[in-house]
Amino acid sequence: MQTKNRRDFDAVAEQWDQEPRRLKLAQDVVAALRKVLPLTRAMEVLDYGCGSGLVTLGLHPFIGRITGADSSRGMLDVLDKKIQAQGLDNVSTMLLDLEKHGLEGSFDLIVSSMTLHHVQDVPSLIASLSMALKPGGWLALADLATEDGRFHDDPTGVLHHGFSGEFLSGEFARNALVDVSVVTAAAVDKKGADGAIRSYPVLLCCGHK
């Protein structure tokens, strides 16, 4: 993403998990991933834009190994502390910004949750993630459905107001992914400035090579 409109996730990393809404969203996304994907203990997995590792740690009991990758060192420090505290031997971290660097290695599954709306060139990101899949590997991306811009209280670093299922499935197909499906993984209820509570769906798009 462009530096001039980039949120400082390092500054909020230590407090990130204190928002119950984020915890519930991660749990719902993990539940949807488990329902849609054929997870096995043989899978090598990447969670791109992992943040503090809420989805990463939700998935780790059901796969072989998982790497939490993020462009925020502060977020990865938080995740590293959790890994050490829980004594996990199948979870690791990687400092990675695919808008600046390529992705080395190949994976059976790549997931990403609530990251796409912070990325300037989403088609290029989806292409990069698709290329890093092993033959038969799965890509699973979760993000907000198209909304009116009121979801984020602070618009810093928000480059897209959600995505349509048609856009996501189209990009998957463009990268030769098959059996593409889009489901509603979660809904986030938030009170707006006018006091009204609105429900914001989160879509999960999955497909495989």
Please state the average pLDDT score: 93
Put simply, the count of helices is 6
Rg to the nearest angstrom? 16 Å
Reading side by side through the largest sheet, how are the strands ordered? 3-2-1-4-5-7-6
Q: Spans of 5+ residues with little confidence (pLDDT < 50)?
A: none
CATH topology: Rossmann fold
Count of discrete domains: 1
Beta-strand residue fraction: 25-35%
Total number of strands: 7
Helix amount, in percent? Answer: 25-40%
Summarize the main sheet: 7 strands, mixed
Oligomer: single chain
> How many angstroms does the end-to-end distance come to?
27 Å
Q: What would you say the CATH architecture is?
A: 3-Layer(aba) Sandwich
Secondary structure class reads alpha/beta
User: What form results from the Cα inertia axes?
Assistant: globular
CATH level 4 superfamily:
Vaccinia Virus protein VP39
